Amino acid sequence: MRILITGAAGFIGSHLVDRLLDDGHEVIAADDVSGGSEANLGGRTALHRVDVAAPEFADLVAAEAPEVICHLAAQVSVRASVEDPLRDGQVNVLGTVNVLEAAHRAGTRKVISTSSCAVYGVPDALPVGPDGPLRAASPYAASKAAGEAYVRMYAELHGLDYTIMVPGNVYGPRQTPEGEAGVISIFTAALLEGKPTIVYGDGSNTRDYIYVADVVDAYARALTAGSRARVNLGTGVQTSDRLLHTLIAEAAGAPDAPGTAPFRLGDLPAMALDPAPGAEVLGWTPKTPLSDGLRATVEWARSR
Ligand SMILES: NC(=O)c1ccc[n+]([C@@H]2O[C@H](COP(=O)([O-])OP(=O)(O)OC[C@H]3O[C@@H](n4cnc5c(N)ncnc54)[C@H](O)[C@@H]3O)[C@@H](O)[C@H]2O)c1
């Protein structure tokens, strides 16, 4: 299949490039390299340097005529979105509209788009299912929720098929401190270098961590399944900041003795995603235990 990936030079996007090339697909990689790195592609495919919100992106889609677009390019930082909500909206809302319009005009069959668990804000109960109410608590969450609305609207208006992916906190090799699971990069780098680490509050805030190979497996399945589905890419398991520190310290062979600081304003207290029912339509389940995924992530960081 001929597949265009936006955000292909990024953390998740580059793993998806690897996975789809390994599966024998033709991959067109697009990224403006504002966040990712061409090195993540390891020379496996050419990179089209283009802004997803620019007219040149539509030209690329028209010229390449992909059957499916996997849309991962985004402004990914919650903090940056609070500081510059216009820039966040430019990339995450207008960029998504540009991707959908270009796909529609080029006759693309399906767009697999990327939202975030941030759209749920503080849910009434955990784990939150894929029909949980959207309660954006940051410009980033609002722009991701708006992107979802546009994806659904293009299906209704133009019959453009979709799967909406809603990842929890994704971690693994090539991740950077900026993303939603950035704490794993930060703890890993500090613990490997013998530098101090900080856990906020009493360390009881939780997140749902999902290994990157499991995430890209869901995208690979969605090429041929999950029509008009919305899928939570999570494990349903909450991991506290304090337990996460212990697990990374173990993997790094470092002392498990973080310093503490007060909770930060705006930090959400807890998250866990119920992948059912969407995951069933993809035949997808997360397979990588957190301890195995963290070991692989720490080994990758050690080797750099
Ligand atoms: N990592 C996580 O924990 C997580 C969780 C939920 C959702 N997501 C979403 O997954 C997707 C991938 O995130 P990631 O963690 O790989 O982050 P990343 O920063 O590594 O990848 C994003 C890529 O998009 C590119 N990009 C940014 N703006 C662009 C633009 N205007 N035009 C073209 N390319 C642009 C960046 O250069 C980067 O390579 C994003 O949509 C993000 O919001 C990530």
UniProtKB/TrEMBL annotation:
Q: Which Gene3D superfamilies match?
A: NAD(P)-binding Rossmann-like Domain (3.40.50.720), UDP-galactose 4-epimerase, domain 1 (3.90.25.10)
InterPro entries (alphabetical) = Epimerase_deHydtase (IPR001509), NAD(P)-bd_dom_sf (IPR036291), Sc_DH/Rdtase_CS (IPR020904)
Per the database record, which ranges form the NAD-dependent epimerase/dehydratase domain?
3-234
PANTHER family linked: DTDP-D-GLUCOSE 4,6-DEHYDRATASE-RELATED (PTHR43000)
What the record says about family reads: Belongs to the NAD(P)-dependent epimerase/dehydratase family.
Name under which the protein is recorded: UDP-glucose 4-epimerase
Name the encoding gene, please.
Answer: galE1
